[in-house]
Design brief:
Strand order of the largest sheet: 3-2-4-1-5
CATH architecture of the largest domain: 3-Layer(aba) Sandwich
CATH topology of the largest domain: D-Maltodextrin-Binding Protein, domain 2
Helix content: 25-40%
Structural class: alpha/beta
Radius of gyration: 19 Å
Distance between the termini: 28 Å
Largest sheet: 5 strands, mixed
Strand content: 15-25%
Oligomer: single chain
Length: about 230
């Protein structure tokens, strides 16, 4: 599955900081009008926090799009990192023009608010394009939690009830094995940040973590954790 960029307003993708004096496009133009000389706000699901989101997506969402479309249309793009709750609230309140999120959240937004998909993203890892991803259930190698049944006594940390690779995929797989993650574990906590989940399991604040595939590897390669 690829991440989906869902449409709320007039033009295209996303971006980043711009002068606050530039008027917001949605405040200036009505539906159907061509946007010019205004600011476009795109909310993005920041699964590893605002800093990681900005580092990963600002080069495209801010620098590239603003450079390309400012010359021809006078458009500036501003990327706004959001957690899961803020994503739904921002779409509900029409506080952003576009939203960048995972496939599961995007489907919910389409059903609940009528957003439209206008683009998708293929991730690249080690030179390979990835059109699918999965979820990981992990614990420390020296812990007592190594089987599915061990989860019943575990302090489990996931990202959010709306998280696909760090909650819903694991939830579905465990239900098939007779475990309801919402009721059958010792404790379930939502971190709203997958990097925090990795650190919390490492540091003993949680016994078992749910993250998307390659999240641990990416945290190690970025120097954020030693594992």
């Amino acid at each position: 599955m690829a991440k989906i960029l869902a449409l709320l307003g007039g033009l295209a993708w996303s971006a980043v900081p711009s002068a606050a004096t530039t008027p917001l496009c949605r405040d200036v133009y009505t539906t159907g009008q061509q946007w010019q000389n205004c600011r476009v706000q795109i909310g993005g699901l920041a699964i590893s926090g605002a800093a990681a989101f900005s580092s990963s997506f600002n080069p495209v969402f801010s620098e590239y799009l603003t450079t390309v479309l400012n010359a021809s249309r006078g458009l500036e793009f501003e990327a706004i990192p959001l957690d899961f709750d803020q994503t739904f609230a921002s779409v509900s309140g029409v506080d952003v023009d576009y939203i960048y999120s995972n496939p599961a959240v995007s489907v919910c937004l389409m059903v609940e608010f009528g957003v439209m998909s206008v683009g998708s993203l293929l991730n690249y890892r080690a030179g390979n394009s990835l059109d699918k991803f999965a979820g990981v259930i992990f614990s420390r190698a020296d812990s007592n939690f190594s089987t599915v049944e061990d989860l019943r006594q575990a302090r489990v940390e996931a990202v959010s009830i709306a998280g696909l690779g760090a909650m819903q995929l694991q939830q579905a797989a465990l239900l098939q094995q007779g475990i309801n993650i919402m009721t059958d574990v010792h404790r379930l906590e939502f971190a709203y940040n997958q990097g925090k989940i990795v650190r919390d399991v490492r540091d003993g604040f949680a016994d078992v973590g749910f993250v998307r595939t390659d999240m641990i590897d990416r945290q190690v390669l970025a120097g954020n954790v030693e594992w």
